């Protein structure tokens, strides 16, 4: 079942077909000179998918305000429908990642059936122990999995185990755990004991994981704990994932590091250690800005993919999960998510066309300039025709934003979906 009329996509594509064909042919010639087969690259890009976070389809916000957009999703079924539009047009986002309890549902198998209908599956499921829910017995004001109070920790553990149970009903295979636990004053918290308590709680969650599940430990430098966060960096994440066992791995959200941190180095280390869970893609200039992927630092995104492609080239065993994690404050989330998914695909394609043996040889010979030029040639090549062909071949739109705007989808759903001032999980 498609949300939009496929005829509209075909009409738009028809006008651009000739240009895409000649641009693709020209790029194919360029790449052939570098001994790269464009069709092989295209097939790899076509097989790549990045999940949509259910909270991403609602308008985001900041601590200052949220400006609701028209036709925002009212519930998880509306969110799935929006994800269906993104998937239909951009053909890069086959998975949806739910957040509990932001996503409420009384019939999970029914939700799964609806997702199936759109051709969507469910990616990792996210727990929430960073905000209090109505009627909750214990508050998370001073932490959750690492709280000093055993009852609060037990409540947070139980919530995560419930998330796993929900995930099992919809076909998820991983639980992502991000906690806001930490302290705002030096001295507020015993730093070592807080981590020990976190580990003790995380072990109980880990013990409840089904055999074929993974647990993604997501670190973040700060916020809401602005002095010390319990899982503040990949070091703490790695310690936790190692202590837990092989099913626990470290998730890298691009925005969760200090400015200038070399994220691709972290990725390389985690791959080597067999502990890379996957990614939350977004971009930032200052901190956890949650801007659209590649909108500020596309070279950095490319360098992350370069590590992934290099590791795959060297046949290292790893299976990262890819997801966007952004906050859309001034754009239509559907447009941002389609554009960001294409940006992630672009970085992957650019990394795929790096001449690996030339790069290896330059590195081996300590030829810094040639190595840097070789790497950069991948980034500087316009791979747009590959992305356009991938979408076209899969029945998607050559120009997803243009088709989306022409479809009038947002105006149409706005008639049934009243603007709401609540956060609805949009503020992250
Ligand atoms: C908070 O920083 C955050 O944005 C994390 O990145 C999580 O992945 C997300 O919220 C949802 O829990
Ligand atoms: Mn994240
Ligand atoms: Mn974040």
From TrEMBL:
Q: Read off the InterPro entries from this record.
A: L-rhamnose_isomerase (IPR050337), L_rhamnose_iso (IPR013451), Xyl_isomerase-like_sf (IPR036237)
* SUPFAM superfamilies for the chain: Xylose isomerase-like
Keywords in alphabetical order, please. Isomerase, Manganese, Metal-binding
> One GO molecular function term?
metal ion binding
Gene3D superfamilies in the cross-refs? Divalent-metal-dependent TIM barrel enzymes (3.20.20.150)
From which residue to which does any coiled coil extend? none
Name of protein: L-rhamnose catabolism isomerase
According to its UniProt entry, this protein's organism is Verminephrobacter eiseniae (strain EF01-2)
